[in-house]
Amino acid sequence: MRVTKPSEGQLCVEIADLVPNDITDEEVQEVKQLLYEHKLIVFTGLDELANKDYIRFASRFGEPQKYFQKNYHHRDHEELFVSSNVLEDGKKVGVAGTGMYWHSDYQFFEAPLPLTMVYPKRVEGPDRATHYIDMEQVLRGLPPSLRLKIDQRQAIHEGKWRYKIQESDIDRSITDILDEIGRMVPPVKHPVSIHHPLKERALLYISRGFTVGIDGYPHEESQQLLQELLAFVELPEHIHSVPWKLGNLLFWDNRQVLHRASDNPHRHPSVSYRIGIYDGLPFYVPRT
Ligand code: 7UC
Ligand code: FE
Predict the structure, then answer these.
(1) E-strand stretches of 85-153
(2) Residue 284: which residues within 8 A CB-CB, separation 6 or more?
(3) Which of 71, 134, 163, 256 has its CA 20 to 30 A from that of 235?
């Protein structure tokens, strides 16, 4: 494999000439190290990977996840989270337009998802990409007045507002649907800044997609603080984009980056298969 590291202040290691089916244990270790150090990897120039080979490749880095909602699952492989707006045999598969907002996967769970792979399968139209924000860089640059306000604080996260309506929801009321999904994934708290199990520097861990408040402040103050923090997080200079190309596979550490799918307003055909991976390490550790 051929490794190109990012320049200072940039994200994303590029790994070319890797054959997933032939990856050795040493290469797995090397990729892991690069991932934790640099937060985001793109494998380039891959030959088309069969589903089972993709799952096997992901399994080298940990335990593949089964997404908590079955409507996202691939028909034959529940480890594949299918993001697609393309019908197969006239039928809808997976979910269209997933993750088009800043987030970290499973942030609304007690045990968030450590690693994510995304394998674009159909790429059409201009500007298809996944965008990233380096949350170590963000925390480092956070104005001291904001930093003071989040010290020792917890953020509250909810998944229910991003619930996607399914066919079975027709004739149900919005409140019913929200109550049900709210019972399935109740609000959780995580520290506003977290410590990675393998790294020195702390990371900001909030997102516009899933974070609904900062715990311990009166409602209005909590909302205002959250909006100020999110406005800083999403400053254009914090955003790194990785264009989608066939033969590329994206791989990142959800502890260290936020991500969002690019917009697709003209609904160009778009298909990608994601695999979530539990790497066997805690998502974050207590500060030392
Ligand atoms: O459809 C989506 O945007 C999926 C989202 C609600 N969850 C992705 C995740 O792993 O947190
Ligand atoms: Fe995501």
Answers:
(1) 115-123, 129-134
(2) 190, 191, 194, 195, 196, 197, 205, 255
(3) 163
Please give the torsion angle defined by the CA atoms of residues 217, 222, 228 and 232, in that order, rounded to the nearest 10 degrees. 80
Say if strands 154-157 and 270-278 run parallel, antiparallel, or are unpaired.
unpaired
Closest CA to 208 of 108, 100, 103: 103
pLDDT value at 288 more than 70:
no
SS3 content of the chain, % helix, strand, coil (to 5): 25, 30, 45
| Gap from CA of 96 to ligand 1 centroid (Å) | 11
Local structure of 121: helix, strand or coil: strand
Read off the tokens for 17. 């000439």
9: confidence class by pLDDT, cuts 50, 70, 90: confident
Ligand 1 site-directed mutation target among 115, 158, 164, most atoms within 8 Å of CB: 164
pLDDT bracket for residue 287 (50, 70, 90): confident
